[in-house]
């Protein structure tokens, strides 16, 4: 390690550097550890204090004798935050936030501090999800966050809430710019977007007070004008742009099977690579068609080319399909084979040979134009591995049902009715049960045969005339990326419980989870490791705070070979050993 000077334009800079051997190039390369700034503007006193601290670190004083060792103040995990911060800056999210133009009168917000607090909250969701009060304590004492100490002396709960409120206020602009940054820098393909929704419930007995909202579920101010044709109670006059009244946390169709609790609905759009490019929040009773209209409107505002939306079987209604096709876009949708629809029955009955596109995926396109009267295309997909699992599961359920009804002919009519009622509470078994005209319980052979015909199969419908059957099937399978995103949101990032009751804070909380998911998915794609492995390995790199008479400094422990490999795979430089220096203040006599 040595000190060197480097010229840039008319200025000369002093740097601390060291050489490393590059086996690929067959020569050494220079890496800058720290820049002391311009040679004509050096902090000479600070450099002297650093030299003194380093001498004492190796047991020498300035005169060459032994001196006091630095006092170790704290040791905190640093590797995870350093990795996330590198990705955050690589995507330009730091300059995006600090570059926001502040308008209006009054005191200007310190955007540098806001950016660091927001990053810390995002890193907290990925590394140690908790309430905002606990997050403030975590970022102050339990983790090393790069550049946080230089912008915020101490972060409290109020600072977290102020940053979240700002995030909520700028969300429409920020989401658009984040999308452009991410898709541009990562060269993401957005010709197909995978969209799905989930819900998250709140442990409270009361829904929020109903407020006037626009088509996107946003609150409309009462002073914005008035109209009398919106969905108001008792002829109540609605503000301009309002379409209905609803609370944000309210009752609706729960995907967590908690219809007894208020909820909000959350939507997410994901690319082919699993990168979440946008997230939305809506009141808990928002219909699917309203969700789709909002998503379509946002995408149209972003001036995207034609998009094909892939969504699950919950979006197959005629109205939803019409919304997805508006503006020239298209869709790939799953169709319920057990719905009894004419399309499903016809698709299963059509003859034809399957085409193998993967070792566990076969596809067959069927022509249903005579039935549907439209140009929609239908693809029957067959997974042999899933067929075996379906058959095994059905056989186990039939065997259990057979055991339950064995000997029931000898029971009284009342006892058989009780057994029938008990089985009716078990949907998996009940669908294979048949009751004879005489009240006897039997296995429904016709039903089991019909179910066997569905083993490993699913039906897709698309409006796109050009995609091959293989592209349609493989595109729909990528919808698993969204489902994986929801699992990570709810488990790894602890989307729930939500420690907020105000709508603005809940929306900001969802945005923080989205940004955290964006960073961890990028880390996973680049390194090939799961986030659990990345977090476990990188958190072994610690930051050590030490004090000397000349000030304090923070140094990193030596990264393990695995940590170095993770940073290299993530296209990030290895963490520098010297993480920060704070010179001692002037003394007074």
| Main sheet attributes: strand count, strand direction, barrel closure | 9 strands, mixed
Query: End-to-end span in angstroms?
Result: 38 Å
Principal-axes shape call: elongated
Whole-number average pLDDT?
A: 86
Rg over C-alpha atoms, rounded to the nearest angstrom? 30 Å
**Strand percent estimate:** 15-25%
In helices, the fraction of residues equals 25-40%
Can you list the strand order of the major beta sheet? 9-8-5-10-11-17-14-13-12
What is the helix tally? 20
Structure class: alpha+beta
> Low-confidence parts lasting 5 or more residues at pLDDT below 50?
62-66
Query: Multimeric state of these chains?
Result: single chain
The strand count comes to 20
């Amino acid at each position: 390690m040595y000190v060197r000077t480097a010229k840039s334009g008319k200025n000369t800079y002093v740097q601390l550097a060291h050489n490393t051997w590059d086996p690929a190039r067959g020569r050494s390369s220079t890496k800058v550890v720290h820049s002391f700034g311009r040679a004509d503007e050096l902090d000479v006193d600070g450099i002297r204090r650093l030299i003194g601290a380093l001498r004492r670190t190796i047991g020498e004083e300035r005169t060459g004798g032994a001196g006091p060792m630095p006092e170790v103040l704290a040791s905190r995990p640093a590797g995870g935050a350093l990795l996330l911060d590198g990705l955050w800056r690589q995507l330009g999210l730091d300059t995006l936030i600090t570059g926001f133009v502040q308008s209006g009168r009054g005191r200007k917000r310190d955007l540098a501090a806001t950016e660091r607090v927001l990053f810390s909250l995002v890193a907290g969701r990925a590394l140690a999800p908790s309430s905002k009060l606990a997050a403030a304590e975590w970022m102050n004492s339990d983790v090393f966050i790069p550049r946080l100490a230089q912008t915020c002396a101490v972060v409290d709960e109020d600072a977290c809430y102020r940053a979240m409120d700002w995030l909520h206020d700028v969300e429409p602009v920020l989401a658009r710019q984040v999308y452009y940054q991410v898709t541009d820098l990562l060269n993401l393909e957005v010709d197909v977007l995978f969209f799905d929704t989930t819900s998250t419930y709140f442990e409270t007995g009361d829904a929020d007070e109903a407020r006037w909202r626009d088509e996107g579920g946003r609150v409309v101010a009462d002073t914005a004008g008035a109209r009398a044709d919106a969905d108001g109670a008792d002829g109540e006059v609605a503000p301009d742009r309002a379409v209905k009244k609803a609370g944000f946390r309210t009752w609706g169709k729960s995907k967590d099977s908690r219809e007894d609790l208020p909820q909000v609905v959350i939507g997410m759009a994901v690319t082919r690579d699993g990168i979440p490019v946008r997230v939305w929040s809506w009141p808990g009773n928002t219909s699917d068609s309203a969700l789709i209209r909002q998503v379509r409107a946002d995408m149209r505002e972003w001036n995207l080319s034609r998009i094909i939306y892939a969504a699950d079987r919950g979006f197959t209604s005629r109205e939803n399909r019409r919304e997805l096709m508006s503006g020239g876009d298209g869709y790939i949708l799953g169709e319920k084979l057990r719905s009894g629809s004419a399309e499903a029955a016809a698709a299963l009955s059509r003859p034809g040979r399957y085409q193998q596109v993967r070792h566990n995926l076969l596809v067959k396109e069927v022509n249903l134009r005579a039935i549907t009267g439209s140009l929609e295309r239908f693809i029957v997909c067959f997974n042999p591995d899933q067929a075996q699992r379906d058959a095994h599961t059905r056989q186990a359920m039939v065997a259990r049902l057979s055991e339950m009804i064995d000997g029931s002919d000898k029971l009284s009519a009342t006892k058989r009715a009780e057994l029938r009622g008990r089985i009716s509470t078990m949907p998996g078994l009940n669908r294979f049960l048949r009751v004879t005209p005489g009240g006897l319980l039997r296995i429904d052979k016709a039903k089991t045969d019909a179910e066997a015909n569905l083993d490993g199969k699913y039906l897709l419908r698309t409006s796109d005339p050009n995609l091959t059957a293989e592209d349609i099937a493989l595109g729909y399978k990528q919808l698993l990326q969204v489902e994986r995103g929801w699992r990570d949101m709810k488990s790894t990032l602890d989307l729930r419980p939500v420690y907020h009751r105000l709508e603005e804070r809940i929306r900001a909380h969802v945005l923080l989870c989205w940004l955290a998911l964006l960073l961890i998915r990028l880390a996973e794609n680049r390194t090939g490791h799961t986030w659990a492995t990345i977090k476990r390995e990188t958190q072994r790199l610690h930051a050590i705070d030490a004090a000397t008479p000349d000030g304090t400094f923070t140094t990193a422990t030596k990264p393990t070979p695995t940590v170095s490999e993770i940073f290299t795979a993530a296209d990030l430089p290895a963490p520098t050993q010297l993480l920060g220096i704070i010179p001692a203040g002037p003394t007074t006599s």
